[in-house]
Amino acid sequence: MSKVFVNIGLSLDGYMAPEGMSLEHWATPEYESWGAKWGALMGWVLKQQYFRENLKFGPGGETGQVNDMLRHTMQRSGANILGKRMFEQGEISWPDEAPFHTPVFVLTHEKREPWVRPGGTTFYFVNDGAERALEQARAAAGDRDIRISGGANVIQQYLDMGVVDELEIALAPVLFGSGRRLFENQQASMPQFRIDKVVDTPDATHLRYVRA
Amino acid sequence: MSKVFVNIGLSLDGYMAPEGMSLEHWATPEYESWGAKWGALMGWVLKQQYFRENLKFGPGGETGQVNDMLRHTMQRSGANILGKRMFEQGEISWPDEAPFHTPVFVLTHEKREPWVRPGGTTFYFVNDGAERALEQARAAAGDRDIRISGGANVIQQYLDMGVVDELEIALAPVLFGSGRRLFENQQASMPQFRIDKVVDTPDATHLRYVRA
C-alpha cells in the first residue's frame, strides 16, 4: 500500500520557514533576513543537480548520495498535498513546469478549477478538508506514495490524524530564532517513530524516521 | 582556553523535558505520562555502563561508543552551571555522590552556603546572574571545559550571550507534543553553528555542533 510521507528541511531550532517569509514580503528577502535564512536552511538542496534541473536553475550541481535521495523522493511520489500558503508562494515562484510532476491536492477554501501545468503537474483545489484530500491523493497515487509537502500546519494536521508513515527531515545547522515551527499545537496522542536511517553530510543531517 | 558546551537529550519535536515534569508532580510520573516520556527521551543513556555507575543505578550496561562519549563528557568538564529548577529536581533525586564531580554553579535567587557533597561535587549558589556564574565557572574549571547543564532557560541565556562554543544534542525519536523547549525566546542575533560530528545509533542521533 502507498506510504504517506513528509520530506522537509528544518532548522536546528525547529523551524520550517523563517520569520518574514510570507507573500507580503516575497519581493524583499532582506526583510527580517528571510532570504538569507532560507538560503542557509536549503543550501544543501540548492546545489544538487536533480533539484537544479527540476527547478530550472540551470545545469551542473552535485550528483552524489544526496542527489540520489532527491531523485528517489520524486520518483516514489504519486501525489502531493499542499497547504494554501505554500501553494500561493509557489504559484509566483515555480517555473511553468511546476516541480511536482504529479497530481497536487491543495487544501484551501478557494473554489477553483484544476490547474494543469506542463510536465505532469495538475493542481486540484480541495475545499472539504485534510481527510478528503488524502483520499483523493491515495486514489491518484496508485502504487506510488503520497507526499505531505507542507507547510507546517498541514503536516501537523496529518500527524494528528495518525496517518504519516515516514518523516524525512534534513536538519540544517542554522538557528532562526523565530518563524514557523514544524512541531507545534500537536495533540498528546501523536504517533511515535523510530530512527530508520541517518545520512551525515556537512550541510545537513538527513534523518529518516518510520512509524514505531 | 576552556570551551563552553551544552550536552543534552532532546525530543524530535524539540523538548528537553515533557509537560508535567516538575517538583509538584515528581512523585507521580504517571501525571501527563511524564515518566514514560522522560524514559523514552533518556533511554539511550540509562543503559550505559558509565551513567549507571555514576548515578548508582547498579552494575552492568553498555560499554561502546556512546559510553565512551559519556565518559569523555564527564572527564572534560571542570565546572557545571545549572538552573534553579534543575537543581531542585536533582536535590531530591541524585545519590549522595551527586553526579557532577566538579564545582557546580546554580543560578538562583536563594542565598545559601556552598553545599559540599562526597565525590567532588560542591554546589555554589550564584545570586548575581548568568555572566557572573560563568566567570566563576571559568575560574573553577582551570584547563577543563564548562558545561551548561540546563535547564532550557539557562541554556537559552548562554546562547543569547553568544558564549556557547559547542552544542551536543542526543536527538531521541520521540514526540512529546508539549513541554519545555530547548529553543525558545531566542534573540535574533544568535551565534551560528556548523555540524562537527554525527553518531548514529538506534536509540538516539548524537549531533555535535561547533561555532561556525
In short:
Chain A is α/β, with parallel strands linked by helices. The first copy, chain A, has helices spanning 34-46, 49-54, 65-76, 84-91, 130-141, 152-161; strands spanning 4-11, 15-18, 77-83, 103-107, 115-116, 122-126, 145-150, 166-172, 179-181, 193-200, 205-211.
How does this structure look, described?
Two copies of one chain form a homodimer. Chain A is of the alpha/beta class. The first copy, chain A, is built from six helices and eleven strands. In chain A, strands 5-6-4-3-7-1-8-11-10 form a nine-stranded mixed beta sheet. The first copy, chain A, has a two-stranded antiparallel ribbon with strand order 2-9. The longest helix of chain A is centred in the first third of the chain and has 13 residues, at 34-46.
Topology of this structure?
Two copies of one chain form a homodimer.
Chain A: E1 4-11, E2 15-18, H1 34-46, H2 49-54, H3 65-76, E3 77-83, H4 84-91, E4 103-107, E5 115-116, E6 122-126, H5 130-141, E7 145-150, H6 152-161, E8 166-172, E9 179-181, E10 193-200, E11 205-211
Parallel strand pairs in A: 1-7, 1-8, 3-4, 3-7, 4-6
Antiparallel strand pairs in A: 2-9, 5-6, 8-11, 10-11
Tags for this model:
homodimer, 212 residues, alpha/beta
Largest interface by Cβ-Cβ < 8 Å = A-B, 35 and 35 residues
Q: Main β-sheet of chain A: number of strands, strand sense, barrel status?
A: 9 strands, mixed
In sequence order, what are the helices and strands of chain A, one letter per element?
Answer: EEHHHEHEEEHEHEEEE
Structure summary, number of beta strands of chain A: 11
Q: What is the assembly state of the chains in this entry?
A: homodimer
Mean pLDDT of chain A: 95
Instruction: Please tell me how large the radius of gyration of chain A is.
Output: 16 Å
Query: Which stretches of chain A of 5+ consecutive residues score pLDDT under 50?
Result: none
Strand order of the largest sheet of chain A: 5-6-4-3-7-1-8-11-10
Distance between the termini of chain A: 17 Å
Question: Which percent band covers the strand fraction of chain A?
Answer: 25-35%
Instruction: State the helicity of chain A in percent bands.
Output: 25-40%
Q: Provide the structure class of chain A.
A: alpha/beta
Shape of chain A: globular
> How many helices of chain A?
6
